[in-house]
Amino acid sequence: MKTAVHDFGIGLGILAVSMNAVVALAGALPIAGWTAAQAAGSGTTYYVSTTGNDANAGTADAPFRTLDFARRRLAPGDTLRIYGGTYHEKLLLENSGSASQPITVTAVEGQEVILDTPALTSQNINVEITGSYNLVTKIEVRNSRWSCVVIRGTNNTVTHLIVDGCVSHGIIASGTNIRVENSEIFNTVRENAARTDGSGWGSALKVERDADYVTFMRNKIYHNFGEGVGITMGNHVTAADNFVFDNFSVNIYVDNSSNVTIERNLSSCTDDTRYLRNGNRPAGIALAEEYYSGWGNRLTNIVVRNNIVGYCGAGIAYWGADQGLGGMNNILIEHNTFYGGTRGVLYVADETTNTREARVTNNIFGTPADSGPWVDEPMRPLVAFQSNFWVDILPASTTGALGTGDKAGDPGFVTTPTYNIPESFALSPSSGAQGTGADTSQFGSNASHGFGAVPTPGPAPAFADVPLDHPYREEIERLYQAGYTAGCNINPLRYCPEQVMNRAESAVFVERGIHTSTYDPAAPASQVFADMPLDSWAAKWVNGLWVDQYTAGCGTNPLVYCPWQGHTRAEGCVLYLRMLNGADFDPPQPAGQTFSDVPLDSWYGKWVQAAYDAGLIPPCQTSPELRFCPDAPLSRGLAAFMMVQAKGLTLP
User: Fold this and answer.
1) pLDDT tens profile 491-544
2) Cα–Cα distance between 173 and 365 in angstroms, integer?
3) Residues 265-298: tens digit of each pLDDT
């Protein structure tokens, strides 16, 4: 089994000084909405083991035996941790969490959990989610008799799953606000392993009828005997940053769905004969309107942008509507690279009834000379082709694909394009495909480069509110990848980078930082701080800091912790220096003053200097004088930067 990488949660933290005495502050990245502590399980944490007993208390030392017994006890904020082993039973999540208190099911850190049900002849689904606000992560699911994973309900997420050996679909999304991320799906749709089915096969990753607001992101989908990604009768669907290759039918298929965005995917094919259909490679991306009773033709508002399709049969195709009266209704195909196709780089079927506002622009099309583009004649006046780059020669006017502003020649890739290396499709500075391309902004495009896909497409930002140009984007992404942050909101996934970090949430980071990213401290038997009642979600984390000697509170007589107080930049220096050097670290007094606003006799002077010297934090101003702004709030974005430096995490 391939071990998954991270789970939702946070970790890293610290201690700090107060003004009049050394006041330990516990620091962390604050999480509003779905808090870090809550994502980690601010309620009860239960454990299951193949050697446990359902008569046990469900603790780490006395785990339950069955998933079914454990899952019935899950309430908002609870976490179910599964010890390594193979479980021959279904995981059914009927209970619901909330936006701020999701239910989490995950493997115990570092252990391999497999849900395998081949012997259960009546079991068609291995993991089924029917409640809301559930998160399932770090589990291998295999050998179902139908779909391995089915996600119904609302606001549910699965991430870092390994899914394989399913008789039909790998993962089905049929609810609202559903996310499938960072998962690997292969060897599914086994019902068609003989490759004799004429039609009607399943998909590795499937959007089912009436699913709404579904996101498939950063998944690897390959060697399946049906479609790779199948978006059927869905609405508001995004498939982005996926690597999809060698699937029997179509790698990415948009079927009778609306408001769909396909972007930044690598869709490619090889000559692996196990996954050829009648000896042919599959299409890279295809659109169609198959017949479904009572549904009609609803293919509309589709964006196919900034994808790389390499060495497949057709590069991109519109196959028409089963019963006619369909069409390409508001379809935009732009800034993609389609290269090395074997059966026609582009095909548009005759379906004029609903065709309007259909555009194909700023793409690179490369294909063998005997396998060029084709647009059925009735569609030619209705589909606008403009400013596309054609490898070697322009298409003949008789193909219907030649447009104004088109160019032809050598695309000038930096190297021979390889099916699994998107960077190999990058354009050299002297490429004939370099150019400004058509102005597509009026059609909803935000692309500004020339022909083809962005040369080196990287992963999309994990968080909707952390754009590519955010100064701390790489650090925030790294924390997410390493499992130290869950963000501040689930759907859409947000980080809240400008929000101020507070001490209650920081306690989670400290404890996770000095233990593990999935550490869950025991609930305290008695109250230590006067302002931290035992029924608070933060109580066990703050108590953990006290036990580990990472905090002395923020005041005495009575002893208080000030859980909702925000951190300053100066306090952040203490926080991450202690993270880097241990709870007892005390920096030396600096020899001279570096920052104009940090006097040597201030309580934070030595902490600021030591943090700056260690590269943990940048100044707030460099001109006309070097300033630190010690009393300015510590934002979550800057805290992410400091945490990555303190933990020595490698940037993505």
Assistant:
1) 778 899 999 998 888 888 778 778 877 788 899 999 999 999 999 989 998 999
2) 33
3) 999 999 888 888 888 899 999 999 999 999 999 9
CB of 607 within 8 A of CB of 574?
yes
The 10s digit of each residue's pLDDT in 130-185 is 999 999 999 999 998 899 999 999 999 999 999 999 999 999 999 999 999 999 99
R_g (Cα) of the chain, nearest Å = 27
Listing DSSP states for 422-450 in one string gives: GGGGPBPTT-TT-S-----GGGT----S-
3-state secondary structure of 152: coil
**pTM higher than 0.90, yes or no?**
no
Q: Could you report the per-residue pLDDT of 393-450, keeping only the tens digit for each?
A: 899 889 999 999 999 988 888 888 888 888 788 887 778 887 533 233 333 333 434 5
Q: Other CB atoms closer than 10 Å to residue 464's CB: what's the count?
A: 14
Does residue 375 share a domain with residue 288?
yes
> Which residues neighbour 212 within 8 Å (Cβ) at sequence distance 6 or greater?
176, 177, 234, 235, 236
C-alpha span between 534 and 527 (Å, rounded): 6
**Token pair listed for 555:** 């005041």
Q: Please name which of 105, 107, 147 lies closest in space to residue 2, comparing C-alpha atoms.
A: 107
- Looking at the structure, tell me whether residues 479 and 408 fall in a common domain: no
Helix 569-581 and helix 605-613, axial crossing angle in degrees, nearest 10: 60
Domain total in the chain = 2
Domain range holding 381? 242-458
Residues 453 and 545 in one domain: no
Residue 247's DSSP bridge partners are 224
Are 258 and 358 in the same domain?
Answer: yes
DSSP secondary structure string, 271-300? Answer: --GGG-BTTBPPPSEEEEE---TTT----E
Please answer whether residues 559 and 530 qualify as being in contact, where contact means their C-beta atoms are separated by less than 8 angstroms.
yes
Question: First vs last Cα of the chain: how many Å apart?
Answer: 24
CB of 572 within 8 A of CB of 642?
A: yes
Q: How many helices (H) and strands (E) does the chain have?
A: 8, 37
